[in-house]
Write a structure and sequence with these properties.
2 domains, 3-stranded mixed sheet, mainly alpha, homodimer, Neurolysin, domain 3, 3% strand, globular
């Protein structure tokens, strides 16, 4: 192994450990920290991020990359892929001038805080100047990265979330989706039967116990992770020390459990990353879209299936002492696949969710090109909601102000949610061909083959291949819309 | 403010934030982390420590110090004191060659692990080679620091724990203590009345509730800190985010509470450090001895007083539904000041504890000079126990193997415990002169004047003065033995 490459591995391992420390501090911030710690915690995390940035952008790292990239034939395929990922990280970090990085941190911190207040007051005008600044600086960032990567500004931003996937790739998936889905939605709404309500009181302790049992069954290892509570469920930590959270609504037996299985999908991906490469760029999750595909595989494809709900129903009855038709597997399934036109993305079902994403994707692309101004955003939002979802936001809180992503600077991120949904459907179709007994195993609560297939085909591949290659190896084809549409057809219209 | 000094402040603030992050990670490690996280957490913490070491020892820091130390008259007294502390940190970090630092980390990590097993098996021979290596490397470290500081090797090590206090200072306190205490102990044992046993079951939840009430009464702010459980009680975190732990023994109403008030003393010191200087060396706790003086002030001086136990007795009865003579203030006081010849330092009472420390201090000094070999340590230990405490360890587990300090490389640390006890007595005597109503306030559960005095005279001084000056300003005199002996006399022999 060439010396320059070895020095890079040492340096990127340091970066991985600093980011691991950051991840634990973020978990602690959300789950454990007393409120008085806010100020000092922000400074600790900023210092760690600056240290990472300093390592990534140091001239020494650049020189080592140049030297390691000299053709020498001494790198094995994992090492070669690792070197590509190192270069990509270095390019992202060095493309943006230091003063722009600082300005972005300042602008997004301010806009995030303003957003919290503006959303509470349902007042977009309050957020507008802050968001204009974030958009302006993000356009500068995108131009700088476009120059470094030799791509379009939007593609350059996308590469930070979904490397290798271009604006053209997404357009090719999202435009047919936008064309088909409203009509699919219409048909689903016409024919779905309203489920019986799941009335009752469902103590948090019982939800936690049942949730932990499901996590263990799905393959979560409590020797290497834990489950806690936070305002918004998330999955953080590092592969041997996973920090998952959820929240419990004691009037709702179902939503807390579905949040748990969703985050378990993320957790299983992190836990299954290639052990030998964990602290190197090639051993990290491939992309946000692939990550979301793993949470949606578990939540949407597996746990909202009829088979899973056959397995769940008795445990649910036993844990909460509930019974009757409402808690039958059939009714639970009707609950799990209930569809409605909705205003809020995070509460949306599998059919309408992509429409929320298409709207945001169109708007953020237009903001970046300058075809849309921040001032025109609320109008464009409402128009898009009418067109795509057939609903009209009654106020800005339930409209353009609902998501934190844009004020926090994550412009270009939204497509990953729906790319993940499309990938999950395609992966499941391939998995079922390889493992036709899977549904009957799931009905018995046996998830071992499911996990084994995901481990081999996704988790243990880390970032060795780009998404196109990863999917082609796993499913025989690059990402395409058809399996997702077939899945919706089978589940909602069969 | 000169530019070089300003740059140093920025750099030392980064160091403070990295160490703050480390402190949260350490707390998490002891309190929250699943066991599988051990390996990766060790790497995260090592990376953070290396980053701190890199900042401290960088040539740039050395040059900035040289420039900032040019007489310019532009620094105010806090800044000037801060600059001195910066130089001291830099000297400690640069004095030891990098390969020796690495060797020490490796040797102490190994010896600590071996110690856990050796203690379990009560087998010093198992630890001996590892401890020999730690002692050998620590002697090298001490020589290197002695050269940098122009002091003796033992003084140079001491400066890392108790800056400004010399071996001669400690000898002048400890030798009279070793001469007086065995005879004091004899007299105390002759005249003390055995307390009634505190029989009962004391649920952890009740202990926690009562403990939190005591913490709040003493001045702990739960908006800026929390209380959890760990195997060994400790106080970590940072001033606005204090992480205190304790453990509960449900057969013992008292020991958990005393651990809580001890750690509360540490917590109040951290919380009271000068707000404007928190992230600079001058705003850190003065020394380990001063830190221990604050925990012993609260635990020993205040909470084991007759007045405090008058205040505590009704809450204890109410919380646990206990009553009768055993739970009277008088009997609780007899429990709190019960003395016995003991084998284990951490369980020792106020009278015998210093004898445990004198033994360790004599032995570690002799190890450093080479007058004692590691092989001769068990014999010397047992001989010292007979001489000072009049007991004979029945095995090595309850003898020379009981403490983690030496295997973990903390050679020179032990004196701080007893320096803290002596300081606490001297501080309390001065405080009582200024605040003669204090005992009657304590009997009513009013600790506000106590905290105000400690804040003004100790906490808010940070590291502005050396210990000698700090004590002289607070009490009119440098550290001396007399108030501690007077305290023992008054409490145990009056």
């Amino acid at each position: 192994m060439p010396e320059a490459y070895r020095a890079l591995e040492a340096s990127f391992a340091r970066i991985s450990h600093l980011r691991g420390a950051l991840s634990v501090l973020q978990w602690d911030h959300q789950v454990m920290m007393p409120p008085g710690g806010n100020g000092v915690r922000a400074e600790q995390m900023a210092t760690l991020r600056e240290t990472v940035h300093g390592l990534l952008t140091s001239p020494e790292t650049g020189e080592l990359l140049d030297r390691a990239e000299q053709p020498s034939g001494e790198l094995d395929p994992w090492q070669a892929a690792n070197l590509c990922e190192m270069r990509r990280s270095h390019l992202h970090a060095t493309a943006v001038p230091a003063d722009l990085v600082t300005a972005l941190v300042r602008a997004t911190t301010t806009a995030e805080m303003t957003w919290r207040e503006a959303r509470k007051r349902s007042d977009f005008a309050m957020l507008r100047p802050g968001l204009e600044e974030v958009v302006r600086l993000t356009r500068e960032e995108a131009s700088a990265k476009a120059e470094a990567f030799g791509s379009s500004p939007h593609d350059a931003l996308l590469d930070g979330y979904e490397p290798g996937t271009t604006t053209a790739d997404i357009d090719a998936l999202f435009e047919p989706l936008a064309a088909f889905l409203p009509e699919v939605l219409e048909r689903v709404l016409e024919r779905q039967t309203e489920p019986l309500p799941l009335d009752g009181h469902f103590p948090a302790a019982g939800q936690k116990l049942l949730g932990e049992r499901l996590m263990s069954a799905l393959g979560f290892d409590f020797e290497r992770g834990r489950l806690d509570e936070s305002l918004h469920p998330f999955c953080g930590g590092v592969p041997d020390d996973i920090r998952m959270t959820t929240r419990y609504d004691e009037d709702d037996a179902f939503s807390g459990l579905l949040a748990i299985v969703h985050e378990t999908g993320h957790a299983l991906y992190n836990a299954g990353l290639p052990r030998d490469w964990r602290h190197q760029p090639v051993g990290k999750p491939r992309s946000f879209g692939v990550h979301e595909s793993q949470s949606l595989m578990v939540e949407m494809q597996v746990c909202r299936s009829r088979e899973f709900l056959q397995y769940l129903a008795p445990s649910l009855s036993e844990t909460f002492g509930v019974d009757g038709a409402a808690f039958s597997a059939d009714n639970l399934y009707r609950q799990a696949i209930r569809v409605e036109r909705s205003l809020i993305r995070v509460d949306a079902d599998e059919v309408t969710y992509p429409l929320h994403i298409v709207l945001r994707y169109r708007l953020e692309k237009a903001l970046l090109t300058g075809d849309l101004t921040v001032g025109d955003l609320p109008g464009a939002w409402n128009e898009g909601m009418r067109e795509l979802l057939g609903v009209e936001p009654p106020d800005e809180r339930r409209g353009v102000l609902q998501d934190i992503h844009w004020p926090s600077g994550a412009i270009g991120y939204f497509p990953c949610y729906t790319l993940g949904a499309i990938m999950a459907a395609q992966l499941r179709a391939a998995m079922l061909e390889a493992e036709p007994e899977l549904p009957s195993q799931i009905a018995k609560g046996d998830f071992s083959r499911l996990l084994a297939w995901l481990r081999a085909n996704v988790h243990e591949q880390g970032s060795r291949y780009d998404v196109r290659e990863l999917l082609t190896r796993a499913t025989g084809r690059p990402l395409e819309l058809q399996p997702f549409l077939a899945h919706l057809e089978a589940r909602y219209l069969a």
